[in-house]
Amino acid sequence: QMRLVESGGGLVQPGGSLRLSCVASTRLFRIFHMAWHRQTPGNQREWVAGIAIDSNTNYTDSVKGRFTISRDNDQNTLYLQMNDLKSEDTAVYYCSATGLSNTYWGQGTQVTVAS
Q: Which residues pair with 68 in a beta bridge?
């Protein structure tokens, strides 16, 4: 069983930046496809960005050019650099790890964009 722990959320003004981190409790981190998702109250969880084991990345259209997903396989850590934040980015952000026939989820970190 792998544990994922997110951090880095908080309150930021529109136009500001935050960097989220997700630390995985496994030395096999490098064989997992990783992703960030977000969810607002009453809505389904939304996929935001993904990074494959070969470090290829993909983004949902609403964050392209503003968010950057990256991974550090030596530190078993996933990142999400979020720039030019907008009020509509307010959500709980979750990381996920997919591999070995399982998908694991973190507990989430709150991001609030407000002036």
A: 81
